């Protein structure tokens, strides 16, 4: 079972890298982009084949290591 | 006063802080490798500055889960003084021994210069040598020093007199100009600036020597 974890900064947490990307886009003459937020994607390859059990493992490691709940949200996507 | 310095892969201020501790206490600190699982009986544990594990995932995230951290946590519960400087502060927040988090600097710059701090609380063994409002100069050198915490946490820090140091001229966007915070019992301090870099006139200042002398006096 594979899982893809998407980690983003919480709303209200300043994202200076997103702001820098946005200003680069403006500098390139790209119009119509109101805001840019950046994050990261972590892919996990699990030996567990049961989706619910695999998701529980991923949920656990998200809480313990992959995301910092003070500043980040995470979303888990299970991929067969 | 007995002390220990925890060394992680890519710690780079561990030997500087060892010199500062020896100068203040007259005793060499024990250097403890991050893979070790115990720390001997000491009065002070320092988590030094650096870029442990290359700042992978988040600054301090890997180090906060190192085998030695259970021993650090156990010492904290017993009331051993714990000091986290720069990367050490990031590790303490990642280990949830201090609240909040250190984000990327607001202007995205790595800031490396001497900054003036205002002593916001002198009610701790780390700060009792200073007067509230006293101005001291410590260097900073970081990319992720932008302290962040939610409003409830900030209120708890303020109400508990747990903000130890504030920047006079905020270099990184930290909320409320916070440069260093204390645990609820005042026995854990995390700060982004580097007191170990100003322990001799040859290094450009003595405010760091006063800081370490103060901890020694308070722990004695």
Topology of helices and strands:
The complex is a heterodimer of chains A (80) and B (220).
Chain A: E1 2-9, H1 16-27, E2 39-45, H2 51-66, E3 72-79
Antiparallel strand pairs in A: 1-2, 1-3
Chain B: E1 3-7, H1 14-25, E2 30-33, E3 44-47, H2 68-78, E4 81-85, H3 87-94, E5 101-103, E6 111-119, E7 135-142, E8 146-148, H4 151-159, E9 163-167, E10 178-182, E11 188-191, H5 207-219
Helix pairs in contact in B: 1-5
Characterise the protein shown here:
The complex is a heterodimer of chains A (80) and B (220). Chain A has two helices and three strands. With 80 residues, chain A is of the alpha+beta class. Chain A has helices at 16-27, 51-66; strands spanning 2-9, 39-45, 72-79. The model of chain A has no long low-confidence stretch (mean pLDDT 95). A three-stranded antiparallel β-sheet of chain A has the order 2-1-3, with helices on one face. Chain B has 220 residues and is an alpha/beta fold. Helices cover 24% and strands 25% of the residues of chain B. Chain B contains five helices and eleven strands. In chain B, strands 2-1-3-4-11-10-9-6-7 form a nine-stranded mixed β-sheet, sandwiched between helices. The model of chain B has no long low-confidence stretch (mean pLDDT 97). The A-B interface holds A 13-14, 16-17, 20, 64-66, 68, 70-71 and B 57-58, 61, 65, 93-94, 99-101, 103-108, 146, 148-150, 173.
Task: Give a quick precis of the structure.
Helices cover 35% and strands 29% of the residues of chain A.
The computed structural class of chain A is alpha+beta
Order of helices and strands of chain B: EHEEHEHEEEEHEEEH
Helical amount among residues of chain B, as a percent range? Answer: 10-25%
Oligomer: heterodimer
Amount of helix of chain A: 25-40%
**Average residue pLDDT of chain A:** 95
Secondary structure category of chain B: alpha/beta
Number of strands of chain A: 3
User: How many runs of DSSP E, i.e. beta strands of chain B?
Assistant: 11
The number of helices of chain A is 2
Order of helices and strands of chain A: EHEHE
Strand order of the largest sheet of chain A: 2-1-3
Approximate strand percentage of chain B: 25-35%
Q: Can you count the helices of chain B?
A: 5
């Amino acid at each position: 079972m594979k899982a893809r974890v998407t980690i983003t900064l919480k709303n209200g947490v300043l994202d200076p890298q997103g702001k820098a990307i946005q200003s680069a886009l403006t500098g390139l003459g790209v119009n119509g982009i109101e805001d840019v937020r950046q994050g990261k994607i972590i892919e996990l390859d699990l030996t567990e084949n049961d989706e619910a059990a695999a998701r529980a493992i991923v949920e656990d490691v998200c809480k313990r290591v992959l995301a910092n709940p003070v500043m980040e949200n995470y979303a888990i996507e299970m991929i067969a | 006063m007995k002390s220990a310095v925890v060394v992680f892969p890519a710690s780079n201020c561990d030997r500087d802080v060892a010199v500062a501790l020896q100068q203040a206490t007259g005793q060499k600190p024990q250097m403890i490798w991050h893979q070790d699982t115990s720390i001997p009986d000491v009065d002070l544990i320092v988590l030094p500055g650096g870029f442990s594990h290359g700042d992978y995932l988040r600054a301090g995230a890997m180090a906060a889960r190192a085998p030695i951290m259970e021993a650090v946590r156990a010492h904290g519960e017993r009331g051993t003084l714990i000091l986290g400087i720069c990367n050490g502060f990031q590790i303490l927040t990642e280990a949830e021994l201090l609240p909040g988090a250190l984000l990327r600097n607001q202007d995205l710059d790595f800031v490396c210069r001497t900054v003036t701090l205002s002593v916001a609380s002198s009610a701790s063994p780390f700060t009792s040598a200073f007067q509230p409002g006293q101005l001291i100069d410590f260097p900073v050198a970081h990319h992720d020093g932008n302290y962040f915490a939610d409003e409830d946490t900030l209120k708890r820090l303020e109400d508990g007199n747990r903000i130890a140091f504030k920047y006079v001229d905020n270099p990184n966007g930290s909320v409320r100009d916070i440069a260093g915070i204390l645990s609820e019992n005042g026995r854990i301090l995390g700060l982004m600036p580097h007191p170990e870099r100003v322990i001799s006139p040859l290094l450009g200042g003595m405010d760091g020597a006063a800081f370490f002398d103060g901890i020694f006096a308070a722990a004695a």
